[in-house]
């Protein structure tokens, strides 16, 4: 019997009362690291890959995501998330099924190879999206662990997943670039509060349930410090599903956009949610576990 089949919950969250931090019981690296860029992934929980895409590729993908954001029919699709205040496109989910160019990128060995090295198995796309953070009014993401949400609301048994954020714009320290706490992936942060029905409708715009307490964020920041993903367009950040991360609002004139791909191990497929009344829609959390080839 597998861990998923036995329904053992080693990472309880969405509790009625505050719960203490818990040390992770799973490895960070399940396979064999071959890329020098991933040498510190086990210790830090993330790695920066410079020049993953060429300037020509960046230009092509930038044109593609601009096309998607300006498509009036697509804007009506439930996979498109609109900013609360600005009424602009914030994210487009399941983008690898909408765009042939991004579907090909998912299968690119430069991309899929990184995930396989860390996860030590075949992988499938748990989630894909394009994120847009426009200048002056781009809204950030509060501190959180992706795995906490994927475990509670999607039924992901263990933190055996990685995210790859590919920058299509320059990431400066001042335009809302992603912040991470190096080493925090080794600690699971339970969150307090019951998950409402259809929570994803609000959380994808502004998350209020599944958010760590100020005390836990402070403890992790004191222990690990905060690093920031800055770099030129075409660079990428690969990070563990359980690392604490977030981003500030972008009040500068410089927009920020990225392609965001989440790879989960085929040995860590989803079961019923551990702390939600029903699974989120499949365009947010895929239940087609076909390996990427």
Automatic annotation (TrEMBL):
Listed EC numbers: 1.14.11.55
Molecular functions per Gene Ontology: 2-oxoglutarate-dependent dioxygenase activity; iron ion binding
Cofactor: Fe(2+)
UniProt keyword annotations, A-Z: Dioxygenase, Iron, Metal-binding, Oxidoreductase
Reaction catalyzed: L-ectoine + 2-oxoglutarate + O2 = 5-hydroxyectoine + succinate + CO2
Xref: InterPro entries: EctD, Phytyl_CoA_dOase-like
Record Gene3D superfamilies: q2cbj1_9rhob like domain
Pfam families reported in the protein's UniProt record: PhyH
Oligomeric and partner information: Homodimer.
Job description of the protein: Involved in the biosynthesis of 5-hydroxyectoine, called compatible solute, which helps organisms to survive extreme osmotic stress by acting as a highly soluble organic osmolyte. Catalyzes the 2-oxoglutarate-dependent selective hydroxylation of L-ectoine to yield (4S,5S)-5-hydroxyectoine.
Family statement drawn from the similarity comment of this UniProt entry: Belongs to the PhyH family. EctD subfamily.
Protein name: Ectoine hydroxylase
Annotated source species: Nocardia pulmonis
Upper classification of the organism: Bacteria, Bacillati, Actinomycetota, Actinomycetes, Mycobacteriales
């Amino acid at each position: 019997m597998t861990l998923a089949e036995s329904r053992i919950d080693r990472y309880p969250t969405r509790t009625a009362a505050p719960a203490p931090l818990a040390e992770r019981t799973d490895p960070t690296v399940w396979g064999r690291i071959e890329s020098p860029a991933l040498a510190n992934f086990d210790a830090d929980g993330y790695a920066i890959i410079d020049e993953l895409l060429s300037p020509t590729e960046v230009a092509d993908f930038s044109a593609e995501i601009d096309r998607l954001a300006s498509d009036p029919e697509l804007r009506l699709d439930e996979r498109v998330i609109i900013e609360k205040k600005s009424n602009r496109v914030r994210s487009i989910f399941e983008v690898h099924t909408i765009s042939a160019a991004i579907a090909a990128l998912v299968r690119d060995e430069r991309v899929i190879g990184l995930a396989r090295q860390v996860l030590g198995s075949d992988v499938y796309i748990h989630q894909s999206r394009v994120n847009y953070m426009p200048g002056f009014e781009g809204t950030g993401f509060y501190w959180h662990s992706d795995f906490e949400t994927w475990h509670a609301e999607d039924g992901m048994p263990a933190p055996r997943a990685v995210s790859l954020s590919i920058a299509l714009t320059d990431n400066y320290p001042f335009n809302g670039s992603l912040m991470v706490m190096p080493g925090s992936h080794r600690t699971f942060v339970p969150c307090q509060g019951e998950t409402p029905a259809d929570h994803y409708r609000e959380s994808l715009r502004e998350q209020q349930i599944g958010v760590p307490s100020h005390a836990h964020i402070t403890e992790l920041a004191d222990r690990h410090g905060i690093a920031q993903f800055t770099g030129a367009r075409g660079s990428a950040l690969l990070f563990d599903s359980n690392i604490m991360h977030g981003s500030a609002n972008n009040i500068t004139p410089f927009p920020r956009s990225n392609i965001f791909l989440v790879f989960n191990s085929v040995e860590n497929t989803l079961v019923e949610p551990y702390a939600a009344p029903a699974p989120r829609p499949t365009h947010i959390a895929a239940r087609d576990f076909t390996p990427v080839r």
